[in-house]
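[audit] Reproducing an earlier prediction to check determinism. Same input, same settings, fresh worker. If the tokens differ from the archived copy the diff job will pick it up downstream; this log only records the rerun itself.
[audit] input (358 residues):
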Amino acid sequence: MQMALYEPGLGYYVAGQHKLGAEGDFTTAPEISPLFSQCLANHCAQVLQDKPGQQLLEFGAGSGIMAADLLLQLEKLGCLPDKYLILELSPELQQRQHSTLQRLAPHLLKRIEWLQQLPDHPFRGVILANEVLDAMPVEMFTLIEGEWYFAGVALKTESNKGTKASDPMPDFELAITPMSEKDVNALPAALQEKDWQHYPSPYTSEYNPTLPGWISSLAETLEQGVILLIDYGYEHDDYYRPERHQGTLLCHYRHHVHDNALLWPGLQDITASVDFSAVAEAAEQAGLEVAGYTTQANFLFANGLETLFNQALADAPEQQYQLAQQVRLLTLPSEMGERFKVISLTKGKTTPSSAIRT
């Protein structure tokens, strides 16, 4: 998964394919409506207001539309950060983000700075990661009659090799290999301690082994402020339900969703849902405070969605249907409203109102 997504020059997120929007493979909330980023800006403004030296850092800015809409709203609120940092590994996406910002907010480009790694200085302000956690490589496991196995990619035997031209990976297949005692002991404690007795066999799922280190690196960088993580996922008990016996790993290609991770390596997105209980645990171990956790719908309504919708409607009444449809996609339980969650992590003396209100 690491290679398929991030191999230099070849991986899905570092190669040059168009990924977002109608012409890409999937659509994110900022692409659906500027209302999403405007609500986010209203929330960030609580942290940035009247505090010189504050900055904003966005992980993986996609097309750059969220950065543009967010900065324009912060400008209206009089709460522009000193710098808007974008951590982006893809040169092609950096260029696309620059073009978007040049088109929508050219006067604010001087505040933008692109990075390839976390800042090397203590950071004060807001760190944003929208749909970043789901793109981190996960480790898949299979539990069979109480025995643990890794689920991964293996070489096919000669007799089992594919011969059809349509076979995406003729020499490879998904396979399981037994875990050693050392491997089992290295699993997250929450998985080791879980009572799997009444779960179906085989039971396949996944976990994010890099999550604690990633959260720890953010905690070390953040001197004072808020880390806001927005993604689709579940709390631990819901993530590892008996009914979810095939895990959450999914692939996206041209707006089609499927579960064959061996199809089109480097050309399709591979994602897994987020275990927000693991996020909270990693945050607390890294010295961060979990200041809030809620659904995307609750977050947006708590940060001015209704007011922003009415303002947009007054400015462009002919777009009533489009605006209403955008709000539905962002907030309905059957769309993004409840499947997507927002978790706020804080460090240092931070404005109390910056915590997420549920």
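[audit] rerun output stored. Observation attached for the diff report: The two ends are 35 Å apart (CA to CA).
[audit] end
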